[in-house]
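ESCALATION

Customer reports they have been waiting on this structure for their group meeting. Please prioritize. Original submission:
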Amino acid sequence: LDADNYETDPCLKEIRRAENYSWMDIVTIHKDKLPNYEEKIKTFYEEHLHLDDEIRYILEGSGYFDVRDKDDKWIRISVEKGDMITLPAGIYHRFTLDENNYVKAMRLFVGEPVWTAYNRPADEFPARKHYMKFLAEEAH
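Update from on-call: job pushed to the front of the queue and completed.
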């Protein structure tokens, strides 16, 4: 994807159409740009899940998403300018900045955004059960 021209990038436009990402905003995570920066960074790094997919398109900067594998071990995913990542609903994850301490990302949603994070343990939610079923099916 062309992060420098995201407003007119035809590839991004097609992804948004195909996946029905009807809502978007842009968030900058930096101590001078994000209100309550220290508190937010700690919140992002708490292991949690969402009931909807988490879609992020990195416009500037870089960071890490940590996700759990099928054996409940951490996998670190580095994201940088031009990367798009989709974390499925129900997956435990966390986010942190790297040594640059800066990322600007587009947040995309199908429909209205829901920001609620459920810290672990949150295994009772249908989204978590669906995700675990998906992992079990993929293992066979």
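Sent to customer with the following note: The chain has one domain: 10-138.
Escalation resolved.
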